[in-house]
Design brief:
TIM Barrel; homotetramer; 16 helices; 2 domains; 8-stranded parallel barrel
């Protein structure tokens, strides 16, 4: 069997004193933190699209990344080579989960029937490779945004034939996800939005989106696929406006259409910041509604207005994200999928390892810090104290719905000006810094 | 009676050939457009806070606007003078509606009981001035964000005593709005959000916000106030994050809490753009849900990251806004409130007239253009054609819920690759330009 | 000769009453406005890259635009076909100028010598087609950003071999520009910047950039190329930071390196707004320094953080741009180049015409409005009045350098508090609206 | 003498194990790092305006911070009380430097002569308090942006009388800065810009700005003030556009007007990010030009579009800033001035200590990490290697100006396609993380 990453062996945990850039300094899969192994807490996944199909192209130039598994002349052989390279990478990196779009792993053919056959063939191989390696599928998805037919949307396309095509693709992608034991299935509607309102019937498109999701829920139940469905919010890009703008928008939409029990969120860091939210904000909004399912672990550049999909290395971000994950009791079906790509100039195969090692170490540190913060309980105690007024008296009565405006006016007239207390933001920020 | 704007008479409509800057060139109140007078279509309102209480201060300097009605030594006399000046302005401008916060019109006293008395006193005068002039109240609201007690929020404050205080204020403000015949009541939760997640229990605060709104709905029913309740979305400022982020977020929240039949939206242009949406986007989202109630007519500077609250003059914006308003059948309780302020350097009293005349003329032009577009039907025809696939066949069956993934896969396998059509954005943009 | 745009004839001026979308309603090439024909004022150019080589691809999908001149199997035949199609388009559109990158018109070969031969061959054809049609070249340029070798910059690359390669390309591109009678040559340094400061020697790269430009100036003089050199600022994209950030940065850099007499600016609307400036701001900054050479006429979406390169249709923008152009006395070597692309969904050949017609009409209207404003002189008079204090007295003495801090302190102590006057922004904005 | 911060003693260094929030955990003034004490490296200064005059007000509400030294009824007594409180704070905090605007320390009177007298009186006290405590002045400045007279600018005002007034203020402020032994004098032109181009003669205003700065240089030489002059760039706010946009713009402007030998830059973190630059970018641009004089140490919120002036706590920022400072050889006249304010909700006096302690600890950590990085030399070695081609051969000849386009074309034709190397961004980011 051809080796695609010669000279690189299994990435080992060597601890913080190592200066081997191809070793983990913090991520120790079997180390127990807060009652579970790191591996079980973090549930890292490698994404297929960026890591194996990414070319380094951008709007101002074609790809720079030349990969040994690219054999574009014979598409199916290239697809198999790529899949084998991927499983070699997974194994050497020591990650247990992966994610893919249907079109990443198998190239589209001239018609859907043929395309589906190709997909089946590659899924056969994936199944075998999963078995051989113990890898599992975090989630699968369909790519219903790249092909020209989807230029005006998939389920929100002005043409019902495109809606139907997208439905056919999701049906098949859900089936292969089920076959590969996928723990989830993601909807990212890259073109579910609009470029100009001048040619858009917004209400009708939103109704179609809801209809489509309902069909997906129905079909999932029919085939007894037990994976979790997720929507991944993004505010824009490639469209001017994407309907799944952010966590709050998606949750509202799901509630409005009676889908909030069936579909959770896959929150991506860079998508949150493109929507002008802190990563932690969108995590918290999802978690507060019991709908934080999984995470796309990357980072954007907050001074840049497009999706840079960089690998996560910021320890503040990883700490605050893991704090939210710990607080909600950890992942069940979800995990941390590195929806991130090496930079256009990072042309060496080794860079793929650096990128993932850095991301895994950053989240391992975030986990350990978050566990320490949780254990110490200082932040929790300060929070509890700040809201203690709601535990009894008028606060508790408000929460129980026992009082209205009239009772509260009487209360105010009696008690006078409320006391105020410092928000203590600087002290809390200093405290956080002491954990880093 | 003292005259506050001497030398300025009633602003007249002089038509497009006039070069009198203190005349309307486009707004002709009684002119009938698309079946109604301009006045009835546009329902302009002057806001009290910016126009009469605005000082021109900003974070880098105190006020520049010296007004003849400012007599700060005697607060109640100053309040009366200001109200009389306002009604003189309304009358000279020829606008029929106004809006206010409780604390704009009457200064706060040492305690709530005394403050309420002051408010009653000023409302007596307002009632009389309304009677004398024929002015009506578009909506009232409370200011529960300026005072120190609200620094950490009103209904989302960590302290139940502040929640109670805010409830008392809203109760009273709703009562005086009712007394003045207000057609609506607005909630803009300037501090309903957070500055840092480190000290915030987001879920609890959101629950309190819902509780508060329910109390407001209950009290409204109790006192039989027949005005419409509105929430005015804003994404941030003064807070880092405001819970009422944008139209979609607010609608989702209202649906989630069973409040969407009771509360509509007051959409502000500058708030929409601060949330990274076109003004028209937020109007359309609200209208698509049957929840576009009223509009705060201003504009931001899209290259500036704070609320500039400039007077609306952009004809593209006013045209597209009025297109959406016409499409939904026009305002019922709502209107166009100029939540806009003259620039810090616009220190002359005359500038207040220029500002409002410009805004009114810009919306009058927008209305006329939108009416022409609607009448011609070109855009509608193109839109209809783009979505015609949904009127019959598989499109109609999808909309009626008669098919699922399996039927659609069969359809796709049978019909093959869908046809695609040009989105024609450039042609549509050119067409729009021809109407301007 | 094959016709690439069958069914579309020469675009005619039909005036504002026409509802033929494939006619000019405002642009009448020979009509005289402010002493010159519209054609002479506006000097429209079509860009080769977007209009003939653009595919509609974006980071989330490959191209959607299928062109009859694409024959990718035989690159040189395809290049010739494309050039012929372009000249057919130019002629039918009735535009007199074009712009290109070397790599747009002729495909790169295996080595530079061969690539240059290919370029020469296509330039032969271009020369003949120019002669046949009367078309002229507004400016030429090189593409030193798409190829993998330039991934870390061209003149600011860490490798001197890449610097040398870029120099070789510019040398050749300047030669062919000269041969085609180009009125100018543009530097847009798409990758002259950095992705991360961690691997960047910023000072050294800036020095290399200056060295490179000096070489270009030297070579231009050597070959007696009499076209104007321009730098086109852009703040970022594809790089995180581009050294030619905006007009002010470029001007400062040119002054610092003694290049400001040799190189002017080509200001692009969308690049200005990506740098958080109004389009007119960057035009004015360049014009104020006598360095506004040419314009890339497009528009961005101010709510979107990447270069959307849309066709210019906003009448405010075209009016204010033409006001600045008229004020500086009109273009000499420069013109209005449509560095703009049809949307990904605008897949019809006709859309290319709609796009350019819309842009030309929008600038024709902008020109006529700007000419009217200039002729009326109202804005000028108000500006003159605002600054009249500098024409005599202490103002004139300050400007002449006759006084310093001590004299001014004495002046202030004597004259006391300065008078202030309204900035009259609202009145001016209304006045502008009256011209539209 | 009244104690303004009772219960808080001198802040001590207690080391990383301390959990006393009112102790330093990292900043140990006398500890030697990289050859100098921390105090000498960091040269912390407290700013007078935010820390002692800040009220917590924002555009949506008046102040929340009630200070024991506020006695607004008697302005001069209040000014003295405030100054004494400030020196108590400086002493307890253990910081050696401070900064102020003239109008912070002494209130404006009815005319300039009287205002100057007040200023002299307070400066007498400041001089004595400096002597008593050993405090030094990092820099002084004038406030020529808050007063109504400056609403349209100071040196760029349309009125020469305002220019003269500003000159008088700067003259006096420079004199008192000299008297207090200030190591520098800063120009931050808060209103040196415009609100609308419709009423602005941009070129004339820029010329006036240059004239003004030249006068300041002249006067400085005349009075033999030996402090360093600085300009502090900011892109906007309060104006729409500020002429001193960012480091590159200011440097270009200074060079253009022959002022670059006389004036350096005071770079503020939050101003850099408002200009869409990383903090480190603007530091590097200034340092690359030998013009990095001093730093305003704060931070913004990159998702917020206004100046939040938060205390610096981000360890990435402090590390990268100190790396740049170490690389340029450390501060000479400059230092780290905390131009930062406690949040509106941070109403306790103790919060002022938390804020400064956090900022000082964050920079102390940044310094230690940067010193370690510098000492290890790994980043330097990688950088050197990346640019090694310039040390000899064609690279060296390019840098020495020995070759032009022709030689480089010959070089390229001979050597063929340049080799490319990975930019290694992920590896470098991981390496940086290992130092934190």
């Amino acid at each position: 069997m051809r080796e695609y990453f010669p000279g690189i062996g299994k990435i080992a945990f060597e601890g913080g004193c190592s200066d081997n850039p191809l070793a983990f300094k913090h991520y120790n899969a079997e180390e127990v933190v807060a009652g579970k192994t790191m591996a079980d807490h973090l549930r890292f996944a490698v994404c297929y699209w960026h890591t194996f199909k990414g070319t380094g192209s951008d709007p101002f130039g074609p790809g720079t990344l030349i990969r040994p598994w690219d054999e574009p002349e014979r598409p199916m052989e290239a697809a198999e080579a790529c899949l084998r390279a991927a499983f070699e990478f997974f194994t050497k990196l020591g990650v247990g989960l992966w994610c893919f779009h249907d079109r990443d792993i198998a190239p589209e053919a001239d018609n859907l029937a043929e395309t589906n056959k190709r997909l089946d063939k590659i899924v056969d191989l994936a199944e075998q490779l999963q078995q051989d390696t113990g890898m599992k599928l975090l989630w699968g998805t369909t790519n219903a945004f790249s092909h020209r037919r989807f230029m005006a949307g998939a389920s929100t396309n002005p043409s019902p034939a495109v809606f139907a095509y997208a439905a056919s693709q999701v049906k098949k992608a859900m089936e292969v996800t089920q076959r590969l034991g996928g723990a989830g299935y993601v909807f990212w509607g890259g073109r579910e939005g609009y470029d100009t309102l001048l040619n858009t019937d917004l209400k009708r498109e939103l109704d179609h989106l809801a209809r489509f999701l309902q069909m997906a829920v129905d079909y999932k139940q029919k085939i007894r696929f037990d994976g979790q469905l997720y929507i991944e919010p993004k505010p824009k890009e490639p469209t001017k406006h994407q309907y799944d703008f952010d966590a709050a928008t998606v949750i509202g939409f799901l509630v409005q259409h009676g889908l909030d029990k069936e579909i959770k969120l896959n929150v991506e860091a860079n998508h949150a910041t493109l929507a002008a939210h802190d990563f932690q904000h969108d995590l918290m909004v999802a978690a507060a509604n019991g709908m934080l399912g999984s995470i796309d672990a990357n980072r954007g550049d907050l001074l840049i207005g497009w999706d840079t999909d960089q690998f996560p290395t910021n320890l503040y971000d990883t700490t605050l994200a893991m704090l939210t994950v710990l607080k909600m009791g950890g992942f069940t079906t979800g995990g941390l999928n590195f929806d991130a790509k090496v930079r256009r100039q990072s042309i060496d195969l080794e860079d793929l390892f650096h990128a993932h090692i850095g991301g895994m170490d950053a989240f391992a540190r975030g986990l350990k810090i978050a566990a320490k913060i949780t254990e110490d309980g200082k932040f929790d105690a300060l929070l509890k104290q700040r809201y203690c007024g709601w535990e009894e008296g008028v606060g508790a009565r408000i929460e129980r719905g026992e009082v209205g405006f009239e009772e509260l006016e009487a209360y105010t007239l009696k008690h006078g000006e409320p006391a105020v207390q410092s928000g203590r933001q600087e002290m809390l920020e200093n405290l956080l810094n002491e954990y880093l």
